[in-house]
Amino acid sequence: MKKLQTLIVITLLPLCLFGQGTFTQITNMGCGDSVQLGPLGYPFWNPPQIVEHAQFGNATTDSLNVLTYQSVPYYAGTDTVIVACASATQLTCDTGIYIFNVSCATPANEFFSNNVLCGDTICIDNLSGFGAPSIAVGSTHGSASIYIAPTDGAGLCYTPDSDFEGTDFVLVKHFNLLRLYVFQVGCSPVGVSSGPKVYPVKVWPSPSAGLVNISTSEKPEQVLLTNASGISQVIDFQDHGDQIQVDLSRFPAGVYWVRVQDRNRVGVAKIYRF
After folding, report:
1. Sign, CA torsion 80/163/49/205
2. How far is 130 from 128, CA to CA, in rounded Å?
């Protein structure tokens, strides 16, 4: 009897690795605040896995499978975190699209998000010497400085502390406007990561007003499009071998998430429709 039980568990285990569905959860919050959601997933069998990280905040899961999202000060807008096996059982693994609508009493005028490797330095050349750029709020976990080029160009350079991994920000005043620079510091590249449950897919062009190409390893069984309100629908696609093509021209402008399901895996990516 024990051998039979073991055989049943081993037979069912691969089924737990494949995505089953997608849902969306929207949370309203203030800038600089944090929220906790969960617990997510199913312990030991299908724990949650962040497959698309936040751009303007920091999202983590802990040993209790609770998702914590921390927004940064001065940011007002939408941030998104995608979690594989956010809702799961022993046999199911649903992908959760978590949308955080962040409001702020005194938001910055412009926002920029950047990925930085541990111990590395990034310089962002999008300022002007004519605007007298200056740092209004310095970084908490690194060093930041403004540089002025001889041709009146200017930019911001940021270096994280050697022992820091997480989210940091710098607020810059430029032409009487406030620019928020958010830095996602990680010891491995940040973004959609591959894994046994969800694999990354490439979409281009994005933004797009019509046809969008999506990279695939094989012909999908289904393509699902989800809008920012959490409404999903199956859409048609044209198969072109190592990629498929979908038409967004009949959809209103906004941000969408495309979910590509083949026989063994599921891929999720963000698409902007203008």
Report:
1. positive
2. 5
Sign of CA dihedral 210, 216, 221, 222: negative
Amino acid at 47: P
Asked whether the beta carbons of 95 and 22 are under 8 A apart, the reply is: yes
pTM: 0.67
Please name which of 169, 161, 154 lies closest in space to residue 123, comparing C-alpha atoms: 154
Peptide bond into 47 cis (omega under 30): no
Structural contact between residues 236 and 211, judged by C-beta atoms closer than 8 angstroms: no
DSSP, collapsed to helix, strand or coil, labels residue 144 as strand
Check: CB of residue 182 under 8 Å from CB of residue 112: yes
Evaluate whether 93 touches 84 at the Cβ level (below 8 Å): yes
Cα angle vertex 132, ends 131, 136, to 5°? 110
Task: Report the SS3 class of residue 3.
Answer: helix
- Beta strand segments in 118-162, E: 122-128, 134-137, 142-148, 153-160
Tokens of 2: 């024990």
Burial class (CB in 10 A: 0-12, 13-18, 19+), 59: buried
Q: Round to whole Å and give the CA distance between 195 and 181.
A: 30
SS3 (DSSP) at 202: coil
Q: Which of 88-102, 183-197, 203-217 has the highest mean pLDDT?
A: 88-102
Which tokens in the block code for residue 78?
């939408």
DSSP code, position 208: B
> Whole-angstrom Cα distance, residue 222 to residue 25?
22
Phi, psi of 39 (to 5 degrees): -70, 155
**Distance separating alpha carbons of residues 28 and 99, to the nearest angstrom:** 9
* Dihedral of the alpha carbons of 225, 229, 230, 236, in degrees to the nearest 10: -20
Q: What is the pLDDT of residues 234-273, one digit of tens each?
A: 899 999 888 899 999 999 888 888 888 776 677 777 788 8
